[in-house]
Design a protein that fits this description.
CATH architecture of the largest domain: 3-Layer(aba) Sandwich
Order of helices and strands: HHHHEHEHEHEHHEHEEHEHEH
Protein name: Sugar-binding transcriptional regulator
Keywords: DNA-binding, Transcription, Transcription regulation
CATH topology of the largest domain: Rossmann fold
Number of strands: 9
Helix content: 40-55%
Organism: Rothia amarae
GO molecular function, one term: carbohydrate binding
Family: Belongs to the SorC transcriptional regulatory family.
Strand content: 5-15%
Number of helices: 13
């Protein structure tokens, strides 16, 4: 007597459940527990070729989905998105939540980028600041004898020596193995006449021209809200300049010059007393590598990107994702 359709259905369903259960067991042992096919065969009581066939079935029937991925792949997709959104020629993203110091992680990304993308006879102009200093500390020792590093802005006497432009210039050249060209002038002088006289002098004018025609600039992106140590305008911003910066919505500064949320230069009386390359010259450089990160820097970074003041951004994942949310 033939089995009823109901009994046949129950039998087929039971057989299918057992088969799927076997596929799951074999797949978990192989992909999650790391067991070999021989070990699985011994455990389930089948031959190794049968186990191999079961693993193939598991993939074909969707029991197992294989996806090749890595944290770096996600970082690279963010870098691409940043470049497309802001018209950058490059970006590097450091992981925000990894073992180690975030400053060191971002700085290592910046150092790696410079070494990987620069020729040995590079001409690099460099500003000051903690991000630039950290990048130099992360630099490997090179033997780029033909390289040149030029100081982009004057020195700040009240700044920590290690992060001053004269020192970052000297130390970067030391790491690259090339020659450094210092700018023998302060960042800010007492009066516009003094600045004009210095800028017109043959030595200073020649160095500033060299800096303005460099292959690459390495700069930090400062925020006017961050008045912690190393703030380069302490003692220089008089009441009139402060009022203009507030009125015109200053969000950050690069190489001693302030800009608003759109990256537009804010002209103040301070500009006429500042010695270094200006924002117009910075925009003309083939490549400006800006190194900055952190929530407190978001407005400044965003403004620099919108204003095309940097063409390469080195930052961390959290900052990059916040920039992409706009």
């Amino acid at each position: 007597m033939a089995p009823s359709p109901q009994r046949l259905h129950r039998s087929n369903t039971s057989d299918e459940r057992e088969r799927v259960s076997l596929l799951l067991k074999v797949a978990r042992m192989y992909y999650e527990e790391g067991a070999t096919q021989a070990q699985i065969a011994k455990h389930v009581g089948y031959s190794r070729p049968t186990v191999s066939r079961l693993l193939t079935e598991a993939r074909e029937e969707g029991v197992v989905h294989i996806r090749i991925t890595h944290p770096l792949e996600r970082a690279m997709s963010i870098e691409k998105a940043l470049a497309e959104k802001f018209g950058l020629i490059g970006a590097r993203i450091a992981e925000s939540k990894v073992l180690g110091n975030l400053t060191q992680n971002v700085a290592r990304c910046a150092a790696d980028y410079l070494i990987e993308t620069s020729p040995e006879d590079s001409v690099i102009t460099v500003s000051n600041g903690f991000a630039v200093n950290a990048t130099i500390e992360a630099m490997p020792r090179m033997n780029w004898l033909a390289s040149r590093v030029i100081q982009a802005i004057g020195s700040v006497s009240n700044e920590e020596v290690q992060v001053d432009a004269s020192e970052t210039c000297r130390r970067l050249a030391g790491q690259l193995g090339g020659r450094h060209i210092a700018l023998p002038a302060p960042l800010v002088v007492s009066a516009p006449e003094v600045a004009y006289s210095l800028i017109q002098s043959q030595q200073v004018a020649g160095i500033l021209h060299y800096a303005a025609t460099a292959d690459t600039a390495l700069v930090g992106i400062g925020t006017i809200e961050d008045r912690k140590k190393g703030y380069i305008f302490d003692g220089y911003v008089e009441e009139e300049t402060s009022a203009i910066l507030q009125r015109d919505g200053a969000v950050g500064h690069i190489c001693g010059h302030h800009f608003n949320a759109q990256g537009e230069h804010i002209v103040t009386p301070l500009c006429a007393r500042t010695i270094g390359i200006n924002l117009k010259q910075i925009r003309r450089l083939p490549r400006v590598v800006g190194v900055a990160w952190g929530e407190h820097k978001l407005d400044a970074i965003r403004g620099a990107l919108r204003g095309k003041l940097v063409s390469v951004l080195i930052t961390d994942r959290a900052t990059a994702e916040a920039l992409l949310e706009d």
